[in-house]
């Protein structure tokens, strides 16, 4: 073997040994190594470093120091306590004898924001922003958190919040490049993932716009022991800026509350939000759901502009269940209370699920009364407690329009409506709607009481086809004709049964050109003793005009001006309707005809959808029970 070959082999062996040695971890003096790394942390970020465990140095594949039992401090507070810390160093700086930290890896770190820690984090953040904006010097190219725990205080509620199982990787290869971040964590018992890309810290720190794309997903059971599933996603693609505290046009500029709020991020672009269970998702986020508690799956898609504490949607598409709406909206969050405003339109709209979710329609006959029994709800009205807490914990100002809308079994066209929720009150307005060929308008207002609710109802209807309306409601079609009427009622109670028992107000209705199905009043007046036979045969009573007015007090409606006029018949109605018991106690009188036809009086008693008819004559006759289809005097 030649001397040259021997030297070459020896050199290769030495190089291999050197590489192998550089790849090994060498234990070094921890205090001196910590002081070496701390100089760069203090110079660039104002952070102090203390190390309780041993330290090692590894040169390849990249120089790095590894510590155990690490604390990052500032202002006498521990900002980070980590079981392990890996400090990645720039080779050029290391050869020059100085530390240039290019990356940090924290293992099982506990990152806390104790009381007064805002100012402790403010200085490192300000230094980082200044260096990023200037584009000078080495920057932190990589940050990794492994199984970290983040603890901070929620500024909205003051409660301590903890993020566990945080695994994060952030890469920022060059000052002029974008920052990419991916993270997985658990918050309030719900696993979530976050991905962010395209963010340019240099432009952002300099006050310029930076592109950004982000996606957040979450799925799991909610934390309070409830069985609701928390699942959904949020995606944005747009631009981000960091605004100063003073508006650009100066402090004298007239601006909205959000525009003059403290400086912070301004995010705009295109966004999409979807969740299978909106109430559970809002509760997971610590937001009082308010009226959103009445909805299920929800998705939003459109252009947006977000500022601290609020977001605006100049154009938005909303899907709630099978309903699809378009329009504009805004949302703000003040001390954990969600406020939503919106103007939305739809071709078809089904509000049945929204209203049945309140429980206020249960026991009215408009929705099924599952689980009710005569013992639990005498008269059929629900005795379940009434409360608005679940739907007034947030604010809502919503304007809706629809070419076609459904409320329970009733369908309407050309609908304009509104819903206002604020300060423990709920107000629903119907500006107009076409129902069975007629026009309906109304307003219902509910307000929370210490025990129960206060309710007020006003409404009017014109030219409604009663036969079609009763068919929609599933009620017996005992009267036909075009009706107009008005109602003004108010009451208060702890349950629907209690509220109905305290109702007060007035109501009036007029029916033109109609007929009563199931009984012939003229024949009945002639031969009252044949009432049972007449009822079995059925019959019809045509009339030109029928009118009734009611005065309601303590759940009892006094019948006044109950009149019916036909070409050959006139009749009147008086008595009472007991609303709480759904019972009639009335008297109908058929006037004698001008041709000498006899008249007669009849008592109408019993359940209002199935009353009994009893002639009031000197000779007492057994009562005849009207069939359901012949409930002629049911209001």
TrEMBL record:
GO cellular component term, pick one: plasma membrane
GO biological process: regulation of protein targeting to membrane
Superkingdom classification of source: Bacteria
Every AsmA domain range: 372-558
UniProt-annotated stretches for the region Disordered: 237-267
One Pfam assignment: AsmA
The protein's name: AsmA family protein
Species this protein is from: Methylobacterium currus
